[in-house]
Amino acid sequence: MSASDPGAAPRTGTAPQTGTAQRPVIGLTTYLEQAQTGVWDVPAAFLPHAYFDSVVRAGGIAVLLPPQPVDAAIAGRVLDGLDGLVITGGKDVDPARYGQAAHTRTDEPRPDRDAWENELIHRAIDRELPLLGICRGAQMLNIAQGGTLHQHLPDVVGHAGYQAGGGIFSIVDVHVEPESRLHGLLDALDVPLPVPVYHHQSIDRVGAGLTVTARTHDGVVQAVELTGVPFGVAVQWHPEQHDDLRLFAGLVDAATRYRAAREQDHEHEHEHEHGQEHEHGQERDTP
User: Fold this and answer.
1) Among the options 135, 150, 152, 225, which is catalytic?
2) Which of 145, 159, 148 has its CA nearest to residue 216?
3) N or C: fewer beta carbons within 10 Å in the chain?
């Protein structure tokens, strides 16, 4: 990927009229970069408004997840409070994670963010937490599953059309695989789907448990899906950059079902524990 995600202007829109108590909580990973605001120039965690605005407009409650020291227990504790997860765009993933030396055009590594998102991804897959990857997020998912990247796409396709530079998104047509979850989410008929892109890297070798579900005409992977989980979709493009909320709505819907199933499991556990307590009470009362 690269060059981060330019912040789009806040968009207007009204979230679906869903009771607040029923809305799922969606976590979104953030940048950790040097940033300026007012008189301050400090390291800061941040995320362009378009990401969490899309989650809110789709009916979710957005929670930001800044990079921090992590292990399996910490990631699990974070995910305990979530019903869905978005791995967002940003700087290039450290190529050392997939066994390569850095290309001259690859960003300086952000090992703190790489480690944070890698652990969140693995723990989310373990518990089948609904997951949406966007741009870098798709690449991070692929690397977490043992895949690799093309570090500089112009070397592969012969042009820089996927990242025009200057924070200007290019529009490319993607072909979505029939019968894929993505096809169903986007009502992608048998015609190319125009999407906004801003990336100079792309998926090369596909990671374990992933299926490619969208490509451009020149073969560049634009989407992958996790097999064997209820909802695991990752796209190379930037759905937050236009008013089509269908991917976010799909995530929110899956997160709502995930939350309902989890609450039902907790209710059954509570009933079981209550039943055991009642049986033990009767045993103590028996002469």
Assistant:
1) 135
2) 159
3) C
